[in-house]
Amino acid sequence: MTEATLDGLAREFADKLTDLTRGVLGRDAPRFHAIELVEDRRVRVQPIEDDRVVRDIPVTVGGVHRIDLRVSYDCCWDGSSRFLAADKSEFKVYYKNVADPLFRFEYERKANVLPGAHIHVHAHRDEVAYLLRLSEAGRPGSKLKRDRLPRSSELHLPVGGHRMRPSLEDVLLFLVREFAIDTAAGWEKVLGVHVQDWRITQLKAAVRDAPDAAVEVLKDLGYTVEAPTIPAPRSSGTAKLYLP
Q1: Residue 142 exposed, middle or buried by CB count within 10 Å (0-12, 13-18, 19+)
Q2: Which of 145, 146, 154 has its CA nearest to residue 114?
Q3: Whole-angstrom distance, CA of residue 51 vs CA of residue 28
Q4: pTM, entire model
Q5: CA 171 to CA 57: how far, in whole Å?
Q6: pLDDT tens for each residue of 104-151
Q7: Which of 38, 133, 179, 181 is the most buried (most CB within 10 A)?
């Protein structure tokens, strides 16, 4: 059996993302590619033209191009060096030809103080700006010392932590439900298959973080579970499941 490589797994992931976006948005959605980042041993996965120009994904409403979706993943090995993991991901929703995004769905694997998975909403409320200037401690205090005006878009709204975070599938469904974007025939089936695949992948990762909890549930369901003679090695530090 051929040993998996990071580049090979990233290419498979890129093909899955292409199938997802074309299955939901139509065959004109640009293809995802995996590009090796030699300087830090990661692989970037995003829609890229043959000339290596990064592409936004055009989204139409009523047949008119209204939204641009910018998607990027920086992929790495997980803690066991066996599975593909996202070191960083960004899903940015733009109104066409407007520089400032409407929403940003972001994930940072190395985050531990700020939430690893979070959303930024680019909208202004005076009350939020006021709250961000009240404290002289923490992040508000650091901005105050630099005499920076607070912006609501700088808030990191937590969404499920490292394991239960929103995926690209969730963002596409959000656009369908909230903005009634145009979709390809059979998009619901395509999305459903990819959602199930993502959730199962994350569930398996969570089980590797907390195998004792998985054993407890399986026994409660009537399964017989035997402990391994030699337990599988676990990565050092706090498991991703328990991080904010």
Answers
A1: exposed
A2: 154
A3: 17
A4: 0.90
A5: 13
A6: 999 999 998 899 999 999 998 888 878 877 766 666 656 555 566 778
A7: 181
